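User: Please fill in residues for this 228-position structure.
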């Protein structure tokens, strides 16, 4: 085996490819801070390089139907672990028709007021437009572009309606087995990651929680009695 290949480390969990496109899932999981140990996964409680840290699975689609190099189009979208597991249930539950989508907008706006925006679509339709059975009924599409970010009342952000501008789009058709393989392997990785992370995170978190509770009890016991 080539030495370079042996030494190459990748966080790719799994991939499926055909003669037109490739879809791959990558590990972007991050554990929660000790103050939130019970949730295991980071959900934006702390920042790195000015960005809130979230535990995610990155999905990329490469479209090389028009050639490689500059003609190879790559798009990305991040899903939360529970979203991966939700999609897996759509297969195991035997859904014949299914559609689900999500959009995200983040980052600082450019000089024209646009921020990075992404869209994710997944659907299953058993028949094509002519009523013929589909060999690959699942379709996943990712669109990367930009949009105008607005703030909601709770302090979160959303993309203004009709502000999205697409910059590149990729899609791939998958069989039931293709998608089941991708989601099942990713779900297994998430579960094993949680098992590995949980022991240290939970033990340390519980220890800190007990210390905090003991300190609060001592402060209460040492407080002077209330004078009427």
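Assistant: Residues filled in for all 228 positions:
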């Amino acid at each position: 085996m080539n030495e370079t290949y042996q030494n190459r480390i990748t966080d790719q969990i799994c991939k499926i490819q055909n003669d037109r496109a490739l879809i791959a899932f990558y590990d972007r999981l991050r554990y929660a801070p000790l103050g939130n140990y019970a949730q295991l996964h980071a959900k934006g409680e702390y920042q790195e390089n000015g960005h809130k840290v979230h535990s995610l699975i990155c999905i990329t689609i490469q479209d090389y139907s028009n050639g490689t190099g500059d003609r190879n189009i790559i798009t990305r979208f991040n899903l939360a672990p529970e979203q991966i597991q939700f999609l897996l249930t759509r297969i195991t539950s035997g859904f014949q028709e299914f559609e689900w989508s999500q959009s995200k907008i983040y980052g600082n706006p450019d000089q024209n007021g646009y921020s990075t925006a992404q869209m994710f679509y997944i659907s299953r339709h058993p028949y094509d437009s002519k009523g013929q059975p589909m060999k690959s009924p699942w379709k996943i599409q990712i669109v990367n572009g930009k949009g105008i970010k607005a703030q909601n009342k709770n302090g979160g952000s959303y993309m203004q309606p009709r502000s999205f501008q697409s910059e590149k789009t990729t899609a791939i058709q998958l069989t039931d087995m293709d998608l089941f393989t991708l989601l099942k392997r990713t779900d297994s990785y998430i579960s094993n990651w949680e098992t590995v992370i949980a022991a240290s995170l939970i033990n340390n978190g519980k220890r800190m929680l007990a210390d905090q509770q003991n300190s609060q009890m001592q402060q209460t016991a040492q407080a002077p009695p209330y004078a009427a």
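For context: Residues 3-198 form one domain.
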